[in-house]
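Each field is listed here:
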Amino acid sequence: MYRKIRRIVPAVLTAGTLLLAACGDDSATQSTTIAAPETTIAVETTDAPGTTTAPTEPEVTITAPDTTEATMVTVPFQDPQELLNPITGYTFLPLPDGVAEALVEQVSADQTLSSELTAVGAIMLQDDATTDQVLVIFFGLNQAFTGADADAYYEAATAGGTSIIDVDVDGRPGKAFLIDGRSSFTTLTGSTAILAQADTSDALEAAVTALFAANPEL
């Protein structure tokens, strides 16, 4: 399980930068069949001296193995706005064009990683009063991380971060930390991993608190 966590965490940590900057085109994934041509080998025989033998030309057919490539498993994108309750004092902002596709492409590129995820989603929350924006990314996991697996997740998630502290946001234990100059918070709730990032810790704490208060099922 620890190796699986190690594969998931890098995608979580890089998703913040990806969603803010990426505008890649969505590219379709296709299955490719490579058909090798049928090969026929003709064998010619030579008569021994003083004998007459009718010429024969046996044919040997080599059948190429099936080389059809497996279709890549694509992690579905779930728009959190379709599942979350409205948050008092905040507005859901649409993601920039191409961002959802870029996130799906990133997590689906690693088939071991994609096999551990049921869905991925992201949303921008804007404070109606201050206009502060907070990015929240959701990763649906095949199973909940508990005990040693949860410890391993938090250790890997905060690797490279600074000012790492244990926090409790509306009853959800997690880690607050700084990475790449951004205030970050991550928690495991059921079978969902959540990563939130903002420019300031105050904006981050306010948005995450409001998110959980409006959505107690998280």
User: Anything to note?
Assistant: Confidence is low (pLDDT under 50) at residues 20-45.
